[in-house]
Amino acid sequence: MDYVKLKAEIAVDPLQRGYQAMTAQQVVDSLKVVNRTIQGSVSIRQVLRWSAATDGIQSFKTGSASGNKDKRRISDASLAMLTSPHVAELDVADPEIIQLLAATVSFGILTQAAIDALKARGQTMVSREAELGIPGVTRGDVLRYKKE
Q1: d(Cα 34, Cα 16) in Å, to the nearest integer?
Q2: Whole-angstrom Cα distance, residue 86 to residue 127?
């Protein structure tokens, strides 16, 4: 148990769950509720399924044939990344990938809805306990930092 993380969560209450007004057991229960969305990478298999559903790769091919050099550059880079045998997953939370995806929308290569659909394929629902990396929080753990 990482007591530093648990103590900080209870003391700071960054999500404003109201830990101070809760009993120790209510804090435990709140931490264990699966209601947090975390963004993970999207496997290339999922990217290909996304592309089939949204015609993503064809959109990049069309962009690559554009007369606009920036649109071509973004499309070529996206296409190379998505079709490379050396890429196993797409980290859609990486700042450079976020920038690249935003550029595909601004150049009209993809829609924001298509980007959102791609990101959704890498999202997972977890508890706050899992998100913080403090599995197995007990009432006793909480009582170390919170009086009832």
Answers
A1: 16
A2: 33
pLDDT in tens, 9-38: 999 999 999 999 999 999 999 999 999 999
With a CB cutoff of 8 Å and minimum separation 6, the contacts of 46 are: 121, 122
Q: Are 54 and 105 in contact (CB under 8 A)?
A: no
pTM of the model: 0.75
- Per the CB < 8 A criterion, the answer to whether 62 and 74 are in contact is no
Packing angle of the helix pair 56-64, 44-54 (nearest 10 deg): 80
Could you give the CA distance from residue 71 to residue 77 in angstroms, rounded to a whole number? 10
Strands 34-39 and 42-43: unpaired
Domain locations in the chain as residue ranges: 3-39+125-143, 42-121
Distances (CA, A) of 137 to 15, 60, 146: 18, 47, 13
C-alpha to C-alpha distance for 22 and 9, rounded to whole angstroms = 13
Tokens 């990217």, located at residue: 47
- Residue whose entry in the numeric block shows the structure tokens 């909480």: 142
